[in-house]
Amino acid sequence: MQTLPHCETLLLKKQGPVLHVTINRPESRNAMSLQMVAELSTIFTEVESDSSIRAVVIRGSGGHFCAGGDIKDMAGARNQDAGEGETDPFYRLNRAFGQMLQQVNESSKVVVAVTEGAIMGGGFGLACISDVAIAGPTAKFGMPETSLGIIPAQIAPFVVERIGLTQARRLALLGLRIGAAEACALGIVHQAAASDEELNEMLAQALDRIRHCAPNATAETKALLHRVGHESMGGLLDSAADIFAKAVRGSEGAEGTMAFMQKRPPAWTDTK
């Protein structure tokens, strides 16, 4: 990604191996529009082929992460009639969001969510597909869909994967809103900060740890973790052993071993 693309709903800033993506619709508490979905999808498509980027940090402007779906898009879809043989506009809107979530979830990069203020509906789903999630003191998480007469169609599977069926049932079926401490206890986020300063320090520490981990090994590990529960254990372990052997014999394995023996940082920690 030599030049950062222009986005209407996102602010982009590259710092070394980290791409910072700030959702920038503060007038709507960063509600997720179709345009935002398309722009996030474009960014993650480009990031996937950029070896200089090892992590993507997603956060929101104006004190909020993302307050859910954009009501204007919902209203626009309601005014569209599906012609004969055409797909329902509500289906297309909802499914486009789910495809973006799946793309981000399966990205080979480390995805870090910095959550503050409203993290509702689609924003909740976006937090649940991050690899590392940190909550600020103002964070409020929720799945309000059922209280609005709709369903959390695209985020529900990711929420179940994140925190398990039992807890997902309680949040979704009661339309609950919870704070950062409970979100941390449930495993929605990994850390909850007591102040903005602590939030930024937690982010800096996470990015430092990402820098210390080999990029290809990190990507292979993330892909392996996503396969758990979807394949037979024996077959998965056979495949994992093959990946392990290739990693040990590869350039990162050689460099990591040599760096350990020479008591020096491996080459991939130098990101300047």
From TrEMBL:
UniProt cross-references to InterPro entries, sorted A to Z: Enoyl-CoA_hydra/iso (IPR001753), Enoyl-CoA_Hydratase/Isomerase (IPR051683)
Lineage: superkingdom: Bacteria
Any Pfam family matching the protein: ECH_1
Family label: Belongs to the enoyl-CoA hydratase/isomerase family.
The protein, known as: Enoyl-CoA hydratase/isomerase family protein
